[in-house]
Specification:
By secondary structure, the chain is of the alpha+beta class. It folds into two domains: 136 residues, MutM-like, N-terminal (N-terminal domain of MutM-like DNA repair proteins); 124 residues, Helicase, Ruva Protein, domain 3, CATH 1.10.8. It contains seven helices and ten strands. Helix 6 crosses helix 7. The protein is elongated and about 60 Å long. The two termini are 32 Å apart.
């Protein structure tokens, strides 16, 4: 599933293509994308909207309009935008739609460009919010941005009294927004914290280390334009490069880049979890 670095990469590529442009054509081809609303109704409401900003909050893309409405997009597992040449297959209207497999929606801009949304698994969502609805919508779902004004003290206060495994807690989007399975494993390895450690058991030094590690792992992910493991592509059709930088994720059985011990894999919070048995000491039974 795309995490903060992947979604930020998408945002950065969409922004210059969308800001200042209006939607002159909107086709929503999959009712699941906007359910429980009617797809035709949502398409009609988007028609003519002018984009003033493309933002991101956690794993959500935020398309803001001059009307003060906002379109909140969650890519989920396989959602992806395509722009420019990558979306050219749908730029000629319905006759060209078949050129983009798993196409779920198509936007035509007032400069003639096409922006396509494809989604193999069909879990992605578009939610059109009215003026004033965006802030409470996000506040009810997300904790602080890890790369914003988010301190180690903030993190510590959110871990206190949480006896769940630390990996489960940092995967909780109300703890910190945008961290998913990949970057949780990478951050825990960087901070030498075992994923099964109870969150409340971390001391102040460990919390500071984890705070730095989360920010560092995400920063590298953004610099490498995300990780392409299966379906993720940037809007220009390019792949990310973060998969070449993984220290631990997906590398079970390979030597730890820090100590040489074979990396291990287990399940924590229902997710495949990668760690070093030597560097990240397991909690006492």
């Amino acid at each position: 599933m795309p995490e903060l670095p992947e979604v930020e990469t998408v945002r950065r590529q969409l922004e210059p293509a969308l800001v200042g442009r209006s939607f002159t054509g909107v086709e929503i081809l999959d009712h699941r994308l906007v359910q429980p609303r009617d797809r035709g109704e949502v398409a009609a409401e988007l028609l003519g909207e002018q984009v003033v900003a493309v933002g991101r909050r956690g794993k959500y893309l935020l398309v803001r309009f001059a009307s003060r409405r906002a379109l909140v997009v969650h890519l989920r597992m396989t959602g992806a935008f395509l722009i420019g040449a990558a979306a050219a297959g749908g730029a000629d209207g319905p006759s060209g739609l078949a050129a983009i497999p798993h196409l779920r929606a198509l936007l035509v801009l007032d400069d003639g460009a096409a922006v396509a949304f494809r989604d193999v698994r069909r879990f992605g969502t578009w939610t059109l919010l009215e003026p004033g609805e965006l802030r409470p919508y996000l506040a009810a779902r997300l904790g602080p941005e890890p790369l914003g004004a988010f301190s180690a003290a903030d993190l510590g206060s959110r871990l206190a009294r949480r006896q769940a495994p630390i990996k489960a807690v940092i995967l909780d989007q109300s703890t910190v927004a945008g961290v998913g399975n990949i970057y949780a494993d990478e951050a825990l390895w960087r901070s030498r914290i075992h994923p099964l450690r109870p969150a409340a058991d971390l001391d102040a030094a460990e919390v500071r280390s984890l705070h730095r590690a989360i920010r560092a792992a995400l920063a590298v992910g953004i610099a490498r334009q995300g990780a392409t493991l299966r379906d993720y592509r940037a809007p220009d059709g390019s792949s990310g490069g973060m998969q070449d930088e993984f220290k631990v994720y997906g590398r079970d059985g390979e030597p730890c880049p820090r100590c040489g011990r074979a990396l291990a894999k287990s399940r924590v919070a229902g997710r495949g979890t990668h760690f070093c048995p030597r560097c990240q000491r397991a909690p006492a039974a």
